[in-house]
Amino acid sequence: MTKFYSDNGVHKISFSFSLVTKNKVLKYQNKLSSDKATGLDCILARFGVDSASLVAYPLTYVINLSLIQGTVSSDLKYARVVPIYKKGDKTDVDNYRPVSILSVISKLLKELSMIKLILT
Q1: How far apart are CA 41 and CA 76, in angstroms?
Q2: pLDDT single digits (tens) 16-49
């Protein structure tokens, strides 16, 4: 397998994680759409936007801790899955597609966890 990568110009692979700042968390919280559906945590997206300045520091800590430890809380790994109608006969299950609805914190973690693949 090493030969495959070296033959294609890849010699060393390393990952680097950038910790997030409170300002970055605030920026992304304010970008959240307040009319998004509620995830399994039952926290309304509207609350995530309205409470941004109050919860930005604790969220920054939790997100950075997750990045440093390389783990994600099991509560953030689950989503509420709902069927969304596509077209055709509404009684045919093949005419629906599943949509995963994440918690507000999961959405923020996903947006803020900047993983950079550095090839040198």
Answers
A1: 9
A2: 567 888 998 888 888 888 888 888 888 888 887 8
Token pair 């300002």 in the structure block, residue: 23
For residues 94, 79, 117, 3, the Cα torsion angle rounded to the nearest 10 degrees is -50
The DSSP-derived string for 63-109 is HHHHHHHT---GGGG--EEEEEE-SS-TT-GGGEEEEEE--HHHHHH
Residue spans per domain, the chain: 2-119
How far apart CA 73 and CA 91 sit, in angstroms, is 37
How many other CB atoms are found less than 10 A from the CB of residue 45? Answer: 19
Q: How confident is the model at residue 14 (pLDDT cuts 50, 70, 90)?
A: low
